[in-house]
Amino acid sequence: MNLCPLFLALLVSAEPDLLGPGDHTRSIKLGEQTRSYLVHIPKGYDPKKPTPVVLALHGAAMNGPMMAPFCGLSAKADEGGFIVVYPSGTGAGIFLTWNAGGIRNGMGSKADDVAFIGKLLDDLGTVATVDPKRVYACGMSNGAMMCYKLAAELSDRIAAIAPVAGTIAIEESKPKRPVPVLHFHGTKDTFVPFGNPAGKTPGFMRLKSVEDSVQTWVKLNGCEEKPRATDELSKAGDELKVTRKSFGPGKDGAEVVLITIDGGGHTWPGQKPPVGFMGKSAMNISANDLIWEFFQKHSLK
Predict the structure, then answer these.
(1) Domains of the chain, each with CATH number or no CATH
(2) pTM, to two decimals
(3) pLDDT tens readout for residues 263-272
């Protein structure tokens, strides 16, 4: 009996199906945990061409599927031709968080989320044609803190990051390579304060200020301490003034950019906040447009 055709048929059937345009949910095992992520494959996706990937990390008390409408990145992915991934953290029900640091006294997630993101990228590579030199991470609040952790601990796979309304929460950042950073923050953010968080956040939390976070990566990327350029993105008559400060380029062309929303809250610029207590959102700019514009400038060498 010739087993070769049967063996080949079983081998083919065991291979995962390639994903087509649209939304798909994937599950992966990490130790004893089953973790999940939502992936949006853009319209016009060509599996024969390596495609950039943007990880969009949700804030605390959210999950991946909730992040998709919150930030609206899927529409930008269709326009820009990149894959956007919405991973889910760990916790109870839909109220999930990332182990991004900053939580003391034994509180917070203990999950190895850096390992999870690495395994997620491995899994995604089996069902989509990913460009490994153009994998990026953006995130909101706790997800932004996780972006900074990924830049510090997974810099060999993450080409650039764009944290929104979240600062560095880990004690030390020791990346293997310079990582370009685009940071958005509102001056009236009451959840992750723009200035010194001491006394403004719960006692079990320890976060860096926006200035400390930016300057940490200015130094790590070998940029000059003072910005090379400052420009205003808002226009006369806009409700919120938006200013951009650019540092660098430093080592390997890495740069750090801070976009400050004067009067902005704990929000994603260009998107209306789902609840009023998050504060005002800058509707005169689009974080999604600026993030993709920034990411396109940077790739792994």
Answers:
(1) 19-295 (3.40.50.1820)
(2) 0.91
(3) 999 999 999 9
